[in-house]
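Anyone up for a design puzzle?
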């Protein structure tokens, strides 16, 4: 079949895609799984390397009880032998610790025929519950929420660890930091962290680089937690060493910024994406809204004097710092439910059901956003440089850089 969808060439499409991945699994089921295809052979990768990224995703003040016992125990099921990729699909399984530590979810999430004794019908505004039930014809919100849950991002982060490993061989490093939590913000123009300061960001309870702002953020979380409420915020992902020439101006679905926007927006609870200073620049005059270009004769490279465009121009990476921001809404599950809704059985007004939840997951979302940026960049780097082995991929990238006009 030759439908428009089948011919799409973006990161999530099918034809012509160099790197693709698919996750499966529910939040309280046995496990999550991710299958990645299209990585070159010979890429060194270990379970421990992936575990580091998984551990980073569990970080952050304000997470709920689940993160205290979730171990994200993972198994490399296929595609890796003796610590190196084979070029075949990589399959990674991440066990849900809760399934194995008790039988709490065994009946509720059993794949065998049966029915729940406790359907969830007081749907949460802002969550996928109601629209998902209507779309798929369900009478229990759990049929929707188990997959809509941000638990699924654990599988993405496993894939992202592999994508980051690939990118590291062409000098790309990706990190994130929290710049807003509720009403507490990092002041405009505050210094950005660099990759050698990643530990400092990760060691901070809210993954914020600005200590004063981080104190205010923790204060916000404590206050929201006291009220049984939740908080959203903004993270900034930074891509260092991104080569010139990823993405393209020639088609809407090949533009790097567009691919990044889709990838970031696909993260659960993300409602806004910004490349560079997109929103702030919209209010400026053209004469002060663009990054000036100069020639660095010593380095033999063009330079831009600022990062307003966020490292992409015309949908193509320009070799400057990549800047992508993601805005996360406050979680729709509240520890003290107050959100007005309707019970889908009685049609009577009520408040949404209570589930164990995080006060905020913004620090963790930063790690997921890094993952999505890494997956887009790895896909586009594979498209640009190709190669069946890591050596070939790196050789091609170096040859391109060496001949840049
Ligand atoms: C989530 C609700 C919480 C989070 C979960 C995402 O899970 P639970 O309902 O089991 O306590 O902890 O996130 C994760 C488990 C995770 O690993 O990120 C939700 O409703 O999206």
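Challenge accepted. My sequence:
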């Amino acid at each position: 079949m030759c439908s428009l969808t089948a011919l799409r060439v973006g990161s999530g499409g099918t034809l012509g895609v160099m790197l693709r991945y698919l996750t499966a699994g529910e939040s309280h089921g046995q496990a999550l799984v991710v299958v990645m295809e299209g990585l070159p052979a010979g890429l060194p990768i270990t379970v421990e390397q992936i575990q580091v990224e998984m551990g980073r995703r569990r970080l952050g003040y304000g997470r709920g009880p689940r993160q205290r016992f979730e171990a994200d125990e993972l198994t490399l099921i296929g595609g890796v032998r003796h610590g190196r990729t084979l070029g075949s699909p990589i399959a990674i399984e991440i066990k849900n610790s809760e399934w194995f530590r008790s039988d709490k979810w065994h009946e509720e999430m059993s794949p065998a025929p049966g029915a729940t004794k406790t359907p969830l019908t007081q749907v949460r505004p802002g969550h996928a519950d109601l629209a998902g039930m209507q779309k798929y014809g369900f009478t229990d919100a759990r049929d929707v929420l188990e997959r809509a849950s941000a638990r699924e991002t654990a599988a993405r982060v496993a894939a992202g660890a592999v994508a980051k490993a690939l990118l590291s061989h062409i000098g790309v490093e990706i990190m994130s930091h929290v710049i807003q939590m509720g009403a507490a913000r990092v002041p405009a123009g505050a210094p950005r962290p660099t990759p050698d300061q990643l530990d400092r960001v990760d060691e901070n309870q809210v993954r914020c680089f600005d200590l004063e702002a981080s104190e205010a953020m923790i204060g916000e979380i404590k206050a929201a937690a006291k009220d049984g409420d939740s908080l959203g915020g903004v993270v900034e992902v930074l891509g260092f060493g991104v080569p010139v020439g990823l993405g393209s101006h020639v088609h809407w679905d090949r533009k790097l910024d567009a691919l990044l926007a889709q990838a970031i927006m696909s993260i659960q609870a993300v409602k806004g994406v910004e490349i560079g200073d997109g929103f702030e620049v919209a209010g400026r005059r053209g004469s002060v809204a663009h990054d000036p270009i100069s020639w660095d004769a010593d380095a033999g490279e063009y330079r831009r004097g600022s990062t307003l465009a966020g490292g992409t121009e015309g949908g193509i990476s320009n070799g400057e710092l990549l800047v992508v921001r993601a805005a996360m809404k406050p979680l729709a599950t509240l520890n003290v439910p107050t959100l007005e809704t309707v019970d889908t059985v009685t049609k009577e007004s009520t408040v949404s059901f209570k589930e164990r939840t995080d006060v905020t997951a913004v620090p963790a979302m930063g790690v997921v956003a890094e993952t999505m940026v890494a997956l887009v960049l790895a896909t586009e780097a594979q498209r640009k440089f190709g190669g069946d082995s890591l050596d070939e991929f790196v050789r091609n990238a170096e040859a391109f850089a060496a001949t840049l006009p």
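A detail worth pointing out: Residues 27, 64, 66-67, 70, 149-151, 154, 268, 333, 355-358 surround EPS (CB under 6 Å).
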